[in-house]
Design brief:
This protein is mainly beta. The chain has helices at about 1-30, 65-70, 295-305; strands at about 35-40, 45-50, 50-55, 80-85, 90-100, 100-110, 120-130, 135-145, 160-170, 180-190, 200-210, 215-230, 235-240, 250-255, 265-270, 285-295, 310-320. The strands form 3 sheets. Strands 1, 5, 6, 8, 13, 14, 15 and 17 form an 8-stranded antiparallel β-sheet that branches. A 7-stranded antiparallel β-sheet has the order 4-7-16-9-10-11-12.
Length: about 325
């Protein structure tokens, strides 16, 4: 009798430990590996070159905080830089500044006043290019859309092009790369009349012709009309990208406005690579911080005495982290 009880207890203990290991393993998968974090504090500066770079370390954070050592030199990351594609500081700039109204904190400011790309569009973006095929990653960043963004609501057309992040799997501008594809996260306006703003998301295959012209074909597109884009209020934006086909691909995005609960904006479980790619090899390039739009929208802002401005703070990037 005692032997039976002993073996029963031993079996129960074994089952309990097995379940615990699975639980711990699942928790570790959700946490992932923190690659990098920065709050753009005093020891972080923008170095001006042909475009610009962010260098230094945010010493207010305990680790994974150096733009060169921890981000650029990470084995899965290529390099980071800020890109404008034309213009000068009277037209656009990215600067690290004291947060307006809270000078003890520093933020990265994107300021776009003129169509700086050959007069046809405006661009300020952070590039993480030449990565080693990221197949699963997670980002968190705090965002403040300046009050001037309210003028976008009065633009006399719909808005389908106001990009705040973009993911290339693979890049669409190189003749040596096959199976071109992108996912674009943006802010949209669904009607031509005055309207609230909403988050928009789409995935596109791309055909690149010998003359470098491009043809994009929509694979899927999503708009969340239930949650308005916060303007004039800080919110944390999180997103998760998992490379996969229509069975296991996933793009998740949520926001947490200051003093509010988290709101899931997208949880798309669809293909996240080129539809014809027989051997997808991860996201080689992406823009985690971006402000990119049309000449028309920029000129509308200017006519109304407004400027497109975004503040970014508390940027974090993980490998293999998953939504809770």
């Amino acid at each position: 009798m005692m032997n039976k009880m002993f073996f029963a207890l031993l079996f129960a203990f074994f089952i309990c430990m097995t379940c615990r290991k699975k639980t711990v393993s699942a928790e570790l998968q959700q946490q992932g590996e923190l690659i990098f974090q920065s709050g753009f504090e005093n020891d972080t500066v923008i170095a001006k070159n042909a475009d610009a770079d962010i260098v230094g370390a945010d010493k207010k954070l305990p680790g994974h905080n150096d733009w060169l050592k921890d981000l650029d030199n990470h084995p899965d990351i290529g390099s980071f830089n800020l890109q404008y594609q034309g213009g000068d500081s009277t037209m656009r700039f990215a600067r690290i500044i004291p947060e307006p109204g809270r000078a003890v904190n520093h933020v990265l400011q994107f300021w776009l006043k003129e169509p700086n790309v050959r007069g046809s569009k405006g661009r300020i973006q952070g590039n993480l290019y030449g990565n080693n095929g990221l197949k699963e990653f997670y980002q968190s960043v705090r965002i403040y859309l300046h009050d001037d963004f309210n003028a976008v609501r009065t633009f006399p057309k719909t808005v389908h092009w106001l990009t705040i992040a973009e993911f290339w799997n693979n890049i669409t501008w190189s003749q040596t790369v096959s199976y071109r594809f992108r996912i674009t996260l943006g802010i949209g306006k669904p009607v031509a009349t005055t309207s609230d703003l909403y988050f928009i998301l789409d995935a596109e295959d791309c055909e690149l012709f010998p003359d470098d012209s491009q043809k994009y074909s929509t694979v899927w597109a999503e708009t969340n009309m239930n949650v308005k884009v916060p303007v004039g209020k800080w919110f944390t934006m999180e997103y998760y990208y998992k490379e996969g086909d229509h069975r296991n691909g996933r793009f998740y995005m949520a926001i947490t406005p200051e003093s509010e609960q988290k709101k899931i904006i997208f949880d798309v479980r669809k293909i996240t690579h080129n539809t014809q790619d027989p051997n997808p090899n991860g996201v080689s390039d992406f823009n985690p911080l971006k402000l990119y739009t049309s000449r028309e929208l920029i000129e509308h802002m200017k006519r109304n005495g407004k400027t497109l401005q975004i503040y970014w703070d508390d940027f974090k990037l993980w490998k293999n982290k998953r939504p809770v």
